[in-house]
């Protein structure tokens, strides 16, 4: 049985990791909810965000968190034409073609990363990544709080954008009933492209946080793609609330599980709980029946 | 937060009554919308699509060529340096028997086979191997080649990619010997590919030389007749971990925590550390193995804190060790000695961590800073040629080609037995240090301990080659 301090530390790190999980899954959830597309290039958009922040830091001395804004813009700028030129024309040809295209984009981006940045492991340096403070004898790393805060803020901004803006209305209409939305004058194709770009931007911010907390390499996006899938399915595809709760739940479950039975069982426990939840609610915690 | 269509936030569809096909989602309807906007929109979209496709395909082709992935066979110099008369070759203290002066343009070729892992998971090692061996061959050719049967020959490498697969490695060696008629073979590193390749050469009775294969593993395979290797012994590697900090042990609490990931070499490493901890009088605390690719080490760090060990040894890959080091610092946990095996050897570890890498120790066996002939020049040359930090295997791989070419030159013939006997008689100091083969066809390279100090890997053990002092305790 772990001590109270160890459990408190596990809870804090679980919440921090959960915020990061939610942030990295947000883009997947957006794209799946609006376009019914599983974006296999999501992890590479994260890695690209990490590279943008890395080079901005190295060349201009930019703080990684500030560089995350630029990374989001750059990655969105890359994703937008990919959606318009490669995905949009084949969206009418079933789910297979766009899925394969995102796989192709993933492979191309990985090779480009290796070509231009070499297969080396990079990390983003920031003083606050190592800073900590103590509360009631428990050491709290700042980076976990930052991760949780960034995750909540980004998800909150997306929530506001979807509920309070004209684009949000178009997005919701396109997701609910594209045919009716188009008849009412919504440019569904443009909405899809902007959604794809926004999802990539969120992925880029997640990639920067991953770079600050851990490290990244040309091929590390796959790991985060898998985690993202788990969060999206657990929370319910297309639900911002589900993504946030799903991310936090997975982070806390894994972290507490590791505290009780060791790090070797971290993923095992997380995914067993994940499977149990799905067996009870196949649509996820906040998804609707029949959404799959 | 809630769901779309009900005044809440939900991006998916409302229910089955609204379920539509993918065609309806973004196919026919959006096309109608676009059509209303006129032909110009569709035309520009199509142009954009074609341009993007062409661009992406071009980049893929370029990437494939540059990375060399998928190359199954090559008689060219994959990843090799360009010859340069300005570069200083790494000379050995062996009498090479090589002629002086330039090779005539029509000099006959002498083929040496190379099996290397140029693709799949061992590809980084294969790139180092082929670069180093081609560099050694270029140097030899620039110095006049090798005289065989009274005539100077231009050495040429025939390189095959084993795709990091032992079966392919064995097939490659067969092909090199039977089809390409090479006079000897330079093998890949890592036992999983190196041993099958060596056995293939053994079956064919052709001289074979490799490095990067731990000697204990190599010795266990068979009684070698044609294959040779020079590298470190695993037991020496574990010994240096504790020998290098023996003089500061009295300033610690004498407890060491041992943690490995769940990779195949984890149990072996753990057993080696435990044996040496006992030998040097440390009280060992074994931690549960953690999965490869772990990102959150919170639980392990809590366990380490509870274990109250001043000395912590961890074996994991580079990304895992970077994450662990960051999280140790963020959690305010700082042992007095930190030994990171496997993943901390590469320069990118220090580059990623900056000052946090300072004080972290790691085992290694070669560096351009070692006081061996040509080591510094080779390091500088690699940096200028490739633009990346040098891998520790580059020196031994360069030496492997040197040793083999020296042996062929000494034999003065392409007779396999004569070349084998010349390799067995090797006794000199090369770019990787002294090489002298024992009767079991192995030569032991010294195991060393390095410590990151100011972004540079400083040799702190063994004392005879150390170029810096141990930084203690961990800053």
Explain what you see.
The complex is a heterodimer of chains A (292) and B (475). Chain A is mainly α and 292 residues long. Chain A has helices at residues 4-35, 42-60, 64-87, 96-117, 142-164, 166-176, 178-183, 188-213, 221-235, 240-261, 266-280, and strands at residues 132-135, 138-141. Chain A has a two-stranded antiparallel sheet. In chain A, a hairpin with a 2-residue loop joins strand 1 (132-135) and strand 2. The radius of gyration of chain A is 19 Å and the shape is globular. The N and C termini of chain A lie far apart (40 Å). The mean pLDDT of chain A is 87. Chain B is α/β, with parallel strands linked by helices and 475 residues long. Chain B is built from 15 helices and 17 strands. In chain B, the strands form three sheets. In chain B, strands 1, 2, 3, 4, 5, 6, 7 and 15 form an eight-stranded mixed β-sheet that branches. The longest helix of chain B has 29 residues, at 39-67. The interface between A and B is large, with 96 and 80 residues.
